[in-house]
Amino acid sequence: MAIAPGRGDRDPADLTALIDWLRAVCGGGVFIINKDDHLALGDLIVPSALQSETTIAHLGVAAAVAARFPQVQD
Question: Could you state, in chain order, the average pLDDT of each consecutive group of 10 residues for the chain (74 residues)?
Answer without folding.
Answer: 63 78 83 84 90 91 87 78
